[in-house]
Protein 1
Amino acid sequence: MLEKDPIEDKFRSAFADREQEPPARVWENLDKALHAGPGPAGFWTRIADYFLFHGLHPVFYITLGSVAIGLVAITVYLGPMRHYVIRGHAFAGEKRLCRGTAELFKVSDKTLPWDSVGHYSSAIIDNYGHFQFSRVRNGKYLLRTSPEKNSDAASCYLSTWFDRHERSDSADLIIVERGDINADARLIPK
Amino acid sequence: MSQEDYDLLLRCLNREVAAEYLMYRRYAPKMFAICLRYAGNEMEAEDILQNGFLRLFTHLHQFRFKGSLEGWIRKIFVTTAINYYRMYFKFRREDEFSTALKDATITPEILSAISTQELLDMIHSLPPGYRTIFNMYVIEEYNHKEIAGMLGISVGTSKSQLHRAKSAVRQMIEKRGL
C-alpha cells in the first residue's frame, strides 16, 4: 500500500474548497468582450461560429462541402472549361511530311463559315509528320497544313485544308465536343 | 445537476446577460482560487479567469448535461491555465531547483503551522512547468497519464517534473521550519 504524503495532503486540504473573490474589473472586461457589437471581422466570426456550433450536425456540412467540390469537378471536367487535344500526322503522298506548319482556325456558328473564321493556334509539323494542338476548347475548327518553305515537298504539294481541300470555304469542320481528336491531313499535289 | 443550474445554463445559452452575470457570480470565486494556484501572480490569474469565462460562455453549448457542471467548468479553467503558460514556457527544462534536491524531514508540527497563503506563495515561487504539474497532480488529482495527455509531454517527464516540484516545496517548507 502506498504511503500517504503529508505534504500533498496539506496542499490538498488547504485548497480543496478554497474560494477567492476576483476584482470587479474582471467582470467589466469580460462583459465588454462578451457583449461588444461585432466589428467586420467579428461579424464573420459569429457567422462561422453559428454554422459550426449552432447549426446542423457537422456531418451535414462535410457532405455539403463534398457535394459542392464534386459538382465543381464535374463542371470543370465536362463543361466549357475543359481542354482537349487535336493531333495527327501530315502526309505528302504515301510518305509522312517532313517538317511543315499546321494551323488551326476557329469557326463561329453565328455567321457563314467564310466570314467567321479566326486564327486559333499554330503548331510545327516535326520530321515524322506529327503535329499537335493542346488546350483546345469545345467548338468547330478548320485545319490547314503546309509544307516547309523551299523544301522538296513545297515544290510538289499545296497548303491543304482538312480534309484534302484547296479552299477554306469547302473545308471539313473538325468538331471538338467531348474528347481528343485525331485528324490526319493529306496534302494535295500541285 | 440541479434544476436551478439547468435553468441558468439554458438562459446563458440564450445569451441573457443577467444569467451570464449570475453564472459568473456563482463560479468566479472558486475558479479564481484555481487560477491563482496556476498563475505566477494575481494579474496573470485575472487574465486566466477572464479567458476561462470567455471560453466557458462560447463553448457552453458543448456541455452534454451529463455529470457535474462545476467539474466541467473546473476542467475548462485548468485547460485555460495550461494553455496560458504553454504559450510562454513550452515546458522547457527549468533548472532553478535542480541542484541539492534532498528530501528533508518535515514534522507534522511544521506542516500544521503553515498558512494557506504561505502554501500559495510556495506554489507561486515554483517555475511554471513545475507549478502546473504540481497543481494538476497534487490538488486536481490527475494521474501522470492524464497530465501527459493534457500537456503533450511524456509520462516520464510528468513524473520527473513532479518529483522536482515536490523536492522544491520540501526545501521551502524546511527553510520555513528552521
Protein 2
Amino acid sequence: MPVLNIIQAVNDALRLEMKRDPRVVVLGEDIGKFGGVFRATSGLFEEFGPERVMDTPLAEAGIIGSAIGMALYGLRPVPEIQFADFIYPAYDQIVNELAKFRYRSGGQYTAPVVIRTPYGGGIRGGHYHSQSPEAYFCHTAGLKVVIPSNPYDAKGLLLSAIRGEDPVLFMEPKRVYRASKGEVPEGDYTLPIGKAKVVRRGSQVTVLCYGAMVHVVNEAVERAVADGLDPEVIDLMTLSPLDEATVLESVEKTGRVVIVHEAPKTCGYGAELVALICEKALLSLEAPIVRVAGFDTPFPYTLENEYLPTPERVLSQLHETARF
Amino acid sequence: MRETTPQQRQPVDPHLPKHALYTLLHEDGSAGPDAPRLDDAACVSLYRSLLQLRVLDRRMVALGTDGALGFYVSSEDTEATILGGAFALRATDWIFPSYREAAVALWRGLPLVDHVSQLVGNARDASKGRQQPMHGAWKALNIVSISSLAGTQLPQATGMALAAKVSKKDDVALVYFGEGSTSTGDFHVGLNFAGVWKAPVVFLCRNDVAARHETAASSYAEKGRGYGVTSVRVDGDDVLAVIAAVRGATERARRGEGPTLVEAVSTGTDAVERFRRHLEHRKLWTPELGDLEHTLSTELDTAIAEARLVSPPPIETMFDDVYAVPSQQLVDQRAQLLRTRRTDRSEA
C-alpha cells in the first residue's frame, strides 16, 4: 500500500473523484496551472482541463458564491480557500447562502459544495496564515465541518464529503500536511462523516482532539504512558455534526476529560464539548474538564510556539486531571 | 423586422448624452421599428401580467399595513422591468430574483394561490413556510431561492451560468437586483468573475432613481465596462425596450459572447398604462380587457381566501431540510420540543 502525506492523499481523492464523477470541478486561486500553493491540486489541470479545474480571480466571496451557483445547477464544486484565514470575505456566502439553500427552499434546492481550506498554526505564518476558525462554522446550521488528522482519513473523508448531499467545510491541518504520512489504499474507499475514532484505548482520562492537535496529543500520550498513565484518545474527525455517542461512552468510562484545540479558548469548540459532557455525563465526572487551547490573543508570529498547545502543556494537564 | 440588440445600440457610448435611454414605446402607443415582434396573444398575456402584478402589490401592501403579512415590499413602477426580463427568456433559463421580483414566478406559471401561500407561509408553500414573504423558491420553474441580502445572488448566477457553459448547455442566468446592490462586494465579484469567465449571465439592474447616493459614476451601466461586461441602459417602464435589451443579452450569452449588464431606469411613467396604449394602438383593446382589473382582483380574493384556509406547516417540519438526513442533534431536539408540547397540552 502506498505511503502518502496529507497533500498527496487529498490530491489522490480529488483525482479519483473527478475521474469517477464528471460533475466534480475544482476552483480557486492558483489551483489550476500552478497546482495550488500547497500543491493539493497538482496535475489536475493537465489531466482534466480548464473547464473542470478553474483558476479564479482573487476574491473568496466570488469563489464561494460562484461555487454555490454551480452546485445549484448540478455540478459538485470543490472550491479551495487558500488559507482559512482568508475565508471571512466569503463568510456571508457560506453562512447565509450556502448553508441555508436546502432549508430556506424547503428542500427544493441543494448546494453540495465542499470547501477545502488549510488551517492552523505552526508554520511561521503569523496572524493571516495560522488561524483555526472552525468554531464560527460549527455554529452554522446547515453546514458540516470535517477536520482530518492524517492521510488515510483525509482521503476517505474527502470522498465522502464530495459524494454527500450537504455543504461541507473541509479543514486541512497544514502544519502536518507533509509531516503526517501513512498508508493510503489505492482506489476508492470512504469514511463516514459524523463518526469519531478512538485512536488509543485507555481507561484513565479521555483526550478529545482533532486535526494537527492529534499529533501533539499523541506525543504527550506517549510520554504519559511512559509515566504510567493510561489515557484514551479520540480524534473527533467531524466537528459538526459531532459523534456524541463516542465521546460520551468514553467519558462515562474514564470520568476525566482533557480537550485540546489550537483555536482560542473562549467560545472555542472545546466549550461545546464541555457543555455536552455537563448536560449528558455530569455524574460520570471525577475531575473538572480541562481545555488546553490557543490563548485568547490574536495569533502571534514570533511566539507561535508559546501560543500553540504543546505536548508539555497537554502532558501536565493529563497528570493533573488523572490525579485530581 | 430587425431586432435591436444591445450590441447595435451603444447606450454607454461616450458620444451619447450620459443619460440616453433605449426606448421603444412612444406616447401614442406605437413602437419603434426595432421593437420585438410580439404576437397578439403574447401582448395580451403580458398586459395581463403587468396589471396582475400591480393589483397584487397594492393589495399586499394594504395587507402588510394591516399586519396580516409580516413583510411586503411593493414592486410598483418596476413591473415592466420584472416582466420584460422574464418574458425575454426561455423557460429553461434560470432566474435569480431579489425579493422585489418574487412575483416573477407568476409569469412562469405559478398558480396565484401558491404565491400567496408563500406570502403567508402556510403548509402549501413550496418552501414550507421557512422564509418571510417574497422569499420563495420554485425549482420546477427554475427560479432560485431568494435571500434578503443585497447582491448575494449575483456571483451565484455567474456560477450557475458558468456551470451551464461547462456542461455544454445553452441555459442562461438572469439575475435581478436593485441599484443599491451595485455598491456591494458581491456586485463586484459577480461581474468580475462573469467578465473573466465570459459566463452566459444577464445582470438586470432595477434603477428606480429614488436613491442617488449609490455611485459617483454617471450611470450604473457604466460600471460594467470596467469588468468587460457589455452594458445597456433602457427605459425600465418600457416593457418592449426591456424585452429587447434582455433578449439581445441572452442571444449574446448563447453565442458565447459573455455577460451583459442591463440597467433598467424607471422614468416615472406608468408602465402598465404605456403598454395598455400599445394594445390600443395594435387594436387589441377589448371591453373584457377594460374589466380585467376587476377580474384580477376577484381572482386574488379567491387565492387569499384559499391560502388562509391552509394550516401552518406542522411543528416537526422545522427540523427537516437542515441536512439531507437530520443529525442526531436535530433528532434529539425535535423529540424534546414535541415532548414539551405534549406536556404543555396535557397540563392545559
Protein 3
Amino acid sequence: MIASLPAPGGAVAAALLINVQMPDGHPVAGAVVTVRPLDGAPRHATPVHAVMDQVNRAFEPDLLVIPVGSTVEFPNSDSVSHQIYSFSPPKRFQLPLYRGKPYPPVHFEQTGVVTLGCNIHDEMLAYLLVTDAPWFGRTDAAGAWSAELPRGRYRVALWHPRLRDSESDLERELTVGDGDRAELTVHLSKPLQPAPLADRPHSWDY
Amino acid sequence: MPCRNLAMLRGARAVRWFARCAALLACSGASAAADWDLSLDARLVSSNAQAPFMEGGLGTLRYGSDDQGLQLGRARFAVTQSLGELWSVHLDASMYDDKDRSPVGVTEAYLLFRPYPRAGWRLRMRAGGFYPPVSLENRAAGWDSPYTLSYSAIDSWLAVEVRTLGVEGTLDWLGTRAGGAFDLGVTAGAFGWNEGVGAVLAGGGFSLTDRQTPLFGRVGQPGVAPLYGTEPFLELDHHVGVYAGLEARYYDRVVLRVLRYDNRADPTRIDAVSAAIAWDTRFTSAGLRLEADHGWTAIVQWMSGETTIEPPGMQMNWPFRADYALISKRFGLRHSLSVRYDRFEVQATGDADGDGSQDGHAWTAAYIFEPDTHWRLALEWLRVVSSSYNRADLGGPPLLTETQLQLAVRYAIGSASR
C-alpha cells in the first residue's frame, strides 16, 4: 500500500527510495515506512475506509497501515464465530461474538499501533498502524519502498510487528534535494523475531 | 469368525449413531447458533498384542490380537454453544464401542467463562469435566493428537484415568498483544471424584492407546484381574484435589508447560459397600513444544509421580515416571510424518513389594494425510517392549514385544470442516 499526496503547488517532486535490510543484508519485507516532512505546514494523508477480514481463523490481512481518522471494517468470513478485542492505548475496543458483518466500521482517531486479538482463538493476531504521516507504505519482497514527494527535509521512521530494534534507533532524517531521486538504506541492528508459522492447520489448539 | 461379526455389528451401530446425529443436526435450528463437529473414524487393525485394558487384559495397546480387522476407532460428536458474550458450554461425546457399560460417553463437558482481556490480563474459568493442561501433543479436536493415532504413554494415562471434575482458573498475561514476544499463564484447579486415579497404573501399568474413558466411566471388566472394572472418577473421602501449573509461550513457536497435581486422597479410605479404595496420587509434569519453519515440530514431555494406598496395616506405593520425545514434519497442510519414542516405568515399593511393577519403551511412527477438511487417512505402526510383574503373575510372559498396525479413515462434518 502506498499513499502519497500531490506535491503542493509549484514544488517539483522527486523519488524517494527506501531499502530495509536485516543485519546480514537480507531484505526485510513488510516493514512499514512512514515519512513526515520536517519543513512547512503539517500535512496528513486522507482517511480511508479499509477492510480486515477473518478467514480460516486468521486476520486477512494481518497488518494494515491507515491514516489517522480512517475506518476499518472487520467482517468474519469463517463459519465459526469470532470476537475482536484491542487493549492498545490508541484504540481500546471489542466486537462481541459474531459471524458475517453485523457491526459498523470502527473509527481510529489516534495514532499508534493497535494490536488485535480474538478472545476465542488466541492464535489470531493482527496489527493496525494508525499514522499521521502523509507518506507511508510497506516494503516489498526486495525490502524496498518508494514514493514521489516534493523536495525538502524529511524524517523516515520504520516499524515492523516483529521488530527487536527500538524504533527511535531506526529513525533517519534526510533531504530530498536537487537530484531526481534520493535513496536511503536502513539496516536493522538485530534480526526480526520469527514470523508467524505458515501451514499449521487452523483447527489445532494454539 | 465371531470376532469379526461382532466388530461389524459394533461398526454398524456406530454408523447408525453417526447418521442419527447428522440427521438431528440437519433438522435442528439450534445447530445454526452453535459450533458443532461430528466425526466417524474406522480402523483396519493388525495386532499381536495381549488383550487390551478395556477387556481386562494387560496388553499395552488399544487392540489385542483378537481385535484384528475392521474396528471402530471413534465416533464423536462435539458442540460448543455460546451463552451470551463471555460464557460458553462445551460438550464432547464419543462412542468407542469396546465393552464400556454405556455405548456413548461424555469425555469432556464444561462451562467456560472467558471475559475480555483488560490491560493485557485475561482470566479464564472452567467448571465441569475436562483435561488438566498437561498434554502438548493432544491439540486437535476431541483431545486427539494430530501427529499420531495413539497417544504417548503419558497422555494415554491421562486419557484413561485423569480428568478435572471441578473448577479451573487461568490468568493469562497476553504479552504478544502488548508488543512483547511472550505470553504467560498460571493455572490452578480444584476437583473431586478423583479417588480412583492411579488404580490403572498400579494394576495394569502404562499403555499406548487413544481410548478416552468417559466421565464416570469404567476401565477394564468387572471380575477380570487385575483391573476388575475400576472406576477412576470416584468420590470417597471428600478431599478436594488440586493442581497448579505454569505456561509460557514465545509467539506461536514455543510452549513450555509445567504442572503439579495432587488428588489429596486419603489412602486409608475404603468404601464399605463397593470395597473401592482411595488412591492418593500426585505427579509433576513438564513439557516443551517447539515449532519451526518448514513444518517441523518437536515435543518432549516428562512426568514423575507416585500413587499410594494404605489398607489396614499396610502401605503400598507405586512411584511412576514416563517421558517421550516426538519429531514431526508436515508437508504443506495435507501430509505429515511423525516419530515418537516413549519410555515408562512403574515401581512397586513398600508393601507392594514389586507387585504391579512395569517398565518399557515404545516406538510410534505415523503418516497422516488430510486431503481436505472432511477426510483424514492415517497409517500408524506402534511397537511396545515391556516387562510386567502382573503379566507374569497371571501366567503370561514377563517380557513382551507387542506390535500394532492401524490404517484409519476418518470423515468429519461440522463447523470446523465447512
Protein 4
Amino acid sequence: MSTPASDPLSKPLASSLSKPRRKPFRFPWLPAYATGYLVFLYLPVLLLPLFSFNDGTIVAFPMKGFTLKWYAQLGGQDTLLQAMANSLIVGAVTALTATSLGLFAARAYVRYRFKGRELSEGLVMLPLVIPGIIVASSMLVLFISLGLKPSLTTVILGHVFVALPFAVSIMKSAFDDFDQSLEEAAFDLGESVIGTFRRVTLPIVAPGIAASLLVTFTVSFDEFVLAFFLSGNQPTLPVYIWSQIRFPAKLPNTLALGSLLLLASVLLLLTAEYFRRRSAKSAK
Amino acid sequence: MAGLLRTEASKGIALSAPASLYVGLLVAAPLGILVAYSFWTQSYVEIDRTLTWANYLEAATDPLVRHLMLRSIAIAGAVTAATVMLAYPIAYFIAFRTRKKTLWLLLITIPFWSSYLLRVFSWKLILGFNGVLNSALLSLGVITEPLTFLLYNEFAVVLTLAHAWAPFAILPIYVSLQKIDRSLLEAATDLGCSKLERFFRVTLPLSVPGIIAGSLIIFIPTVGDYVTPSLVGGSQGKMIANLIQVQFGPANNWPLGATLSLAAMASVGFAAILFVILATALGRRIR
C-alpha cells in the first residue's frame, strides 16, 4: 500500500479509468488501537475530576451524588493557601530565570558558530536524563555543605536546573526560522546592538518567550521530588499534596485540589502551545 | 559590549556561558560533594571525615542494596520495553496513517503536562482493594470479590510508569519515522517486498535511532523513580530511590545515601551503554 502523500495523481486517474471497485472491508486496526491508547492515557487523568464531585469519601463505584463541597472547603485552609503562594513564587522566579538563561543560550546556538557549542548544547540538556532522586539528594548535600538551609531559594535553584532544557529547546525553535537580514537592516539604519535586540529581535521571538515562560512555570509548578528534598519547612503545592495523600479523611479535598491543579496545568500548556505556533508563523 | 566581543565565537560563548555554567556547576559540584561524602562516615549528627571504603563495602555486600538495585533495573527495563512496544504503533499511525498529525501529537502530550504526582496517585485509586477498578468490576458482576494482585507489587509499578512515560516513547519514534524518505518505501514495494517484509527490512531499521532515544529517555529516569514505588509499589515494589531517600531522611546516614546515589548512577550508566551497543548491533543485523 502506498502512503497518502506519495502519489497524488493515481487516485483520480484510477477512479476515472477503471470501474468503481468496492474495496473489501478491512478493520481499521491502527486507528482503533490509537483510540484505545488515548483512552488509556486519559482515563486516569480524568478520574480525579470525576470523583472530586462525588458526594462520598471513598473513591469507588457506584458514585454517590454531585457535590461542590470538597472545593468549597479548600478556601479556608491556611497551610494550603501558603503552599499555593510558595508554588506561585517558585514557579514565577523559575520561569523568569530559566527563560532568560535559555533565551541567550538558544540565541548563541542558533546564530553563532563557536568552539564547544555542541558540548554546551548537550550539557544544558543533561538535566532531562539524570534521575530525579540523584539530582535531589546531591543538591541537598551541596546546599547544606554551602550553609544554605532548605527553603524556597534552594527549590528555585533546583527547579531552574530541571526547567532549563525546556526553555532552551523552545527558544531554539523560536530562533530557528528567524530572518537574520532584519537585524542587519536595523544595524544599517543606525540602531545599536541593544536597540536592535530590544526593538527587532525581541518582538519577533516574543511568542516563543511567552511559550517558554508558561512551560517552565508548569514544570516547576508540578515538580515534586526536588521540592520534597529541598523545600525544608516551606512546602510547595505538590509537597503539600504528598503530605495529605496519606490521610484517607482528606482524600476528597485532595481530589478537588488535584483537579484544580490539573486544570491549571492543561490551560497553561494550551496557552503555551498557542504562542509556540504563533512564533513559528511570525518567524517566517 | 560590542567592542569587547568582536568575534562571532566570543559572542556565542558569552551568550551561552550563563546557561552552561549553571548546569555545569550544578552537575559537577553536587557530584563532587557526593563523592566526598561517600568516603566519609556518620555517627548520629557528626560527620567523620576520615576517608574509608566502608560505605562502598556495605553497598556491595548488603543483600538488600543488591536486591533493590537489580529490581530497579529490571522494573525500568520492563517499563521501557512495554512503553516502547505500546508506543510504536501509535507513532507509526501518526507518521503514516493520519493527516491530523499535530492534533494527535497534542492529544498525546496533554496528559503528560498534568502533575506526575497526581497521575501516579490516580493509579493508586484505580488499582486499590476498594478502588475504582475493583468496585466497577464488582458492581458489574464480573468478579465476586476484589482482586488483590492489582496494587502494591511490581506490576502496579510497571503499569503506572508505562502510563506516565508514554509520550517520551511516542515522540522520538514518531520523529524517526517521519524522517524516513517515502521513496525508499516505494522502492521496496517496486522491488517486490511484501508489506510485512518492507516494514521489517526498511521501516523498522530506519526507526532504530528513535527507539534507542526513547528507550534511554525512559530507562534512565525510571531506575531512580521515587514517587511511583512509594505510592503503588508496596513492600514488593520498593526501588533503590526509596532506600536512598531513607538514608537522607529517617535513617539520617548521608554518607551511605551518597554512596547509593553514586552506585545507582553508575549502574544506570552501565546498563544504558550496554543497551545502546546491543540495540545498534541488532539494528544493523536486521538491515
